[in-house]
Amino acid sequence: MNRIEIPEDYEDRLAAGRHAAARLPAGAVREGVDRALEAAPSRDRYEQAADLAERAEALTGELAERAFDGTDADRVAWLRLDYLGRLQSLALSPTIDRLSNPAVADAIQAAWVAAEAARSEYVLHLERVHADLLAARVPDSGGDELRDRIARCSHERFAHTTEDDLCSAEVDVEGRLTGFKFLVPNATLDTECEDLSVQSTATIQAAQAKAVDRLTEILA
Questions:
Q1: Given its phi and psi angles, is residue 157 left (phi above 0), alpha (psi -120 to 50 degrees) or beta?
Q2: At a CB cut-off of 8 Å and minimum separation 6, what does 116 contact?
Q3: What is residue 1's three-state secondary structure?
Q4: Are 66 and 86 within 8 A, CB to CB?
Q5: Cα(104)–Cα(180) distance, rounded to whole angstroms?
Q6: Residues in CB range of 84: below 8 A, 6 or more apart
Q7: What's the pLDDT score for residue 147?
Q8: End-to-end distance of the chain based on CA atoms, in angstroms?
Q9: pLDDT tens digits for 176-213?
Q10: pLDDT of the residue at 88
């Protein structure tokens, strides 16, 4: 963040401005000048606001670099989400050839829930540690409106199926996984785990890409 350099004689200039405003005739012009002078922040208030803004910017950068891992109870699936909840990677255990299609699909969804929980917990941790930043937050009607728009579309779903009908994924408008299944009988038995991992990852990412397109429309 680039700070504005406050002149050394800032307070003197404000005082001179108030003195000059007092000599203006009563009316709309004087009222406008008075409001502008009243809104001028003190040096300390500006420095405090700038400090908070720099901390918020640093935290945003730190969060953007974080990744959140999750796995199921039996460690059949591992996956990693970025700070926005976008899938970065997914790996399946070589033991999937002993499991059914639904069992592996359930493991992927359980791993997703675990990664989402880790992401949420980290955000809550930041809110607890930096409570003063939240306390200093000013009302944001624009942001509230955007959140309301997203909430009104929370029922929408976006799906993608592989061209060979191997698997299918479904996500909500914010990209959270809401469904995953293998469509080919014995997919976990007849497909190498590495290939199944790659195709599962691509399928979920394709569904998320559709959700991103819709989210862009909502926020436009």
A1: beta
A2: 68, 70, 81, 85, 176
A3: coil
A4: no
A5: 10
A6: 175
A7: 86
A8: 26
A9: 999 999 999 999 999 999 999 999 999 999 999 999 99
A10: 96
Compute the distance between CA of residue 215 and CA of residue 210 in angstroms, rounded to an integer: 9
* pLDDT, averaged across the chain: 85
Tokens 């190498």, residue? 192
The Cα 170–Cα 208 span in angstroms is 8
Ramachandran region of residue 63, left (φ > 0), alpha (ψ -120 to 50) or beta? alpha
Token representation of residue 125: 């941790």
- Between residues 138 and 86, the one the model is more confident about: 86
* Identity at 134, one-letter amino acid code: L
Residue length of the chain? 220
- Give the C-alpha distances (Å, rounded to integers) separating 6 from 9, 87, 147: 8, 45, 36
Say what the alpha-carbon torsion angle 114, 120, 126, 127 is, to the nearest 10 degrees: -150
Q: 67-71 and 87-92 as β-strands: parallel, antiparallel, unpaired?
A: unpaired
d(C-alpha 105, C-alpha 110), whole Å: 9
Strand order in the sheet with 77-82: 67-71, 77-82, 87-92
Structure tokens at 204: 């979920």
Tokens 């033991």: give the residue.
95
Report the C-alpha gap between 147 and 218 in whole angstroms: 10
What is the pTM for the complete model shown? 0.73
Beta strands in the chain (DSSP E): 67-71, 77-82, 87-92, 157-161, 167-172, 177-182
